[in-house]
Amino acid sequence: MSLFGLPGVRLKHRKNTANIKPEPIPVPKSVTIPMSMHIGAPAVPCVAVGDAVRVGQRIAEAGAGLSSPIYSGVSGTVKKIDEITVSTGAKMRAVVIECDGAQTPVEGLTPPEVHDRESFLAAIRESGIVGLGGAGFPTVVKLNVPEGRVDTVVVNGAECEPYITSDTRTMLDESELVAEGLALVMKYLSIPNAIFGIEKNKPQCIAEMKRATAEMSGVSVRALPSLYPQGGEKVLVYHTTGRVIGEGKLPLDAGVIVVNCTTLASIAKYLRTGMPLVEKCVTVDGSAVREPKNLIVPIGTAVRDVIDACGGFSETPKKILSGGPMMGVALVDLDAPVLKQTNAVLVFGEKEAMPPRETACIRCGKCMDLCPLGLSPAEMANSFSQGDDASLEKLKVHLCMECGCCSYICPAKRNLVQSHRLAKARLRTYQQKQKELKEQKEQKEGASRGE
Ligand code: SF4
Ligand code: SF4
Questions:
Q1: Please, what is the angle between helix 175-188 and helix 117-127, to 10°?
Q2: What number is the average pLDDT over the span 10-18?
Q3: Helix (H, G, I), strand (E, B) or coil at 197
Q4: pLDDT in tens, 250-283
Q5: Ligand 2 atom 1: the closest Cα is on which residue?
C-alpha cells in the first residue's frame, strides 16, 4: 500500500459544455448570500434591512481569524438578514437582496495599491477571493506563506470531475488573466517557479496556457494523464513536482502552494479593476437540463434561476448536484444559492440518478488498489458499520479526501464514500472524547500526587 501507488480511475469525461462560452445570466429577482462560503469563521453582515446596495459593495466583514469578506453581485435593496439551511444541512445567516435589475456598480471603485508583499496580501484579503476550485479556503491564508519556504506554485487546471468546464473556459477565454494572476503571485511572494497541471483531455487549454506564459521565466505547463482525481491537491503536487505531501502535512511542507487557475484570474481582475469577487462561472449540465450552458452568475443566485436560464428541465429531475458527480453535494432545495466556490449545477433524470443496488463485499480489493492515498476503503467501511472508532483511527480514515474512486470502482456498488464521510465526523468526536478523558486522567493523577 503506497501513497499514490496507483493514480485513480478513468472516467467518461462528458465535457459537453467545453466549447460553450460563458454568458451572463439574466439578473435574478433576488439573491440570498450566505455568510459562510469559505472555510473558517462566518462573515458578519455590515448592511441592514432597507439599505440600498450596489454591485461590488461590501455586505459583510470577515469574521475573526480564518474568514473572508463578502460583496454584493447585484444592485438593489437588502430585504432580510435571515437564517437559512444550506445543502450540507448547516444553518447560517444570509443577506437577502431584492435586485433592481440595473446592476449599478459601487461608486469610486479603484484598483488597490499594491507595491510589495504586504500590500499584495492586504489586497487579496480585501478581494473576498477564496479557492474557487471547490474547497473555499480563503486565498490570502493560502498565499501568506513564510518567505523562502515555497519554490513552486502548482496551478490547478486539472478539472478532473466529469461535466465541469468552468476552469476550462477560464483557461481558454481568460488565459492572459490567469498568466497575469500567476505573475503577481510569483512576483510578490518571491516564488521562482510555477507548473500548470492540466489533464491531457484539454489540449486547447494546454496550448493556450503555453502560449500565454511563453515569455514568463520559470513557468511550465504539464500535460497530465486524464485520471481522476488528478486535481486532488496531494495527487496534483505529486504528478507535477514528484514531491509527496506526507500524512498530516501541507503543500507548504513540500515547498509548494497550489492555486486554482480561476482563482488566479480573479486575483488579476481584482488588481486591475478593484471589483471584488461577486460572480462565478457555473457549468449547468446533466441529462435533465434542457440546454446545458456555462453561465456567469452573481453569487447568491438561486439554483432555480440558474436552471431556468438553461431552458428549465427536459425531464423530471431526480437528482440535483452542486459540483461534479464524484464530489458534488446533492441539493434538496431549488432555492439553494450559488456560492463563491460553486463550479457546477448538474441535474439528472431517473436513469442516471437511481442509486445502484448495494450488495455484499466480495473482497476483490479493487477499492484498495485504486485509492489514490493508499487507504483501505473496504476495511474503513466495515469498521464504521461496526462502530469501531479505534480501528477507524488506525486505518486513517481522516486522510480520505472523499474523491469517490472507491465507490465508483466497487463491483458490489457499496456506498463507500458516504460511509467515509460519516466515519470522519464520528472519528472527530471520538478523538475529542479521548482527549478529554486523557486530560481528566492527568488532572486526577496530578491531584492524587498533591500537585
Ligand atoms: S474516497 Fe477516500 S478512501 Fe475512497 S478512494 Fe478516495 S481517498 Fe480513497
Ligand atoms: S471494491 Fe467493493 S467489493 Fe471490492 S473489496 Fe472494495 S468494498 Fe469490497
A1: 130
A2: 94
A3: strand
A4: 999 999 999 999 999 999 999 999 999 999 999 9
A5: 410
On whether the CB atoms of residues 332 and 87 are closer than 8 A, the answer is yes
Q: Point out the ligand 2 atom lying closest to the alpha carbon of residue 413.
A: 2
Ligand 2 atom closest to Cα of 381?
7
* Alpha-helix runs per DSSP H in 248-322: 261-273, 303-308
Give nearest CA residue, ligand 2 atom 3: 361
CA of 42 to the centre of ligand 2 (A): 39
19, three cell numbers: 466549447
With 80 as the cut, is the pLDDT of residue 17 above it? yes
Count of helices and strands (H, E) across the chain: 14, 17
Question: Which residue has the CA at smallest separation from atom 3 of ligand 1?
Answer: 377
pLDDT tens digits, residue range 273-282? 999 999 999 9
- For the range 428-434, what are the long-range contacts, defined as Cβ-Cβ under 8 Å and sequence gap of 24 or more? 428/398, 430/389, 430/390, 430/392, 430/393, 431/393
Sole residue written with cell 470531475: 161
Q: How far is the centre of ligand 1, averaged over its atoms, from the C-alpha of 237 (Å)?
A: 17
d(CA 36, CA 118): 26
- Say whether pLDDT at 338 is over 50: yes
Ligand 1 binding pocket includes 420 (Cβ within 6 Å): yes
The CA 322 to ligand 1 mean position distance, Å, reads 20
Q: What pLDDT band is residue 247 in, cutting at 50, 70 and 90?
A: confident
User: Beta strand 344-348 with 319-322: parallel, antiparallel or unpaired?
Assistant: antiparallel
Give the chain's radius of gyration (CA, Å): 23
Helix-helix angle 166-173:261-273, to 10 degrees: 50
CB atoms within 10 A of CB 89: 8
| 3-state DSSP assignment of residue 34 | strand
Residue 6 to residue 8: CA distance in whole angstroms: 6
Angle 164-276-43 from CA coordinates, rounded to 5°: 90
Going from the N-terminus, what domains does the chain have, and what CATH number goes with each?
117-273 (3.40.50.11540), 366-446 (no CATH)
Smallest Cα–Cα separation from 142: which of 273, 275, 39, 269? Answer: 39
Residue 1, pLDDT score: 37
Return phi, psi of residue 99, to 5°.
Answer: -80, 145
SS3 44: strand
Neighbours of 26 (CB within 10 A): 11
Please identify which residue in the block is written with the cell numbers 445567516.
Answer: 93
Please tell me the residue having the least CA distance from ligand 2 atom 7.
378
Q: Quick one: which atom of ligand 2 is closest to the CA of 364?
A: 4
Question: Could you tell me the three cell numbers for 359?
Answer: 450488495
Residue 414 near ligand 2, beta carbon < 6 Å: yes
Residue type present at position 287 = S
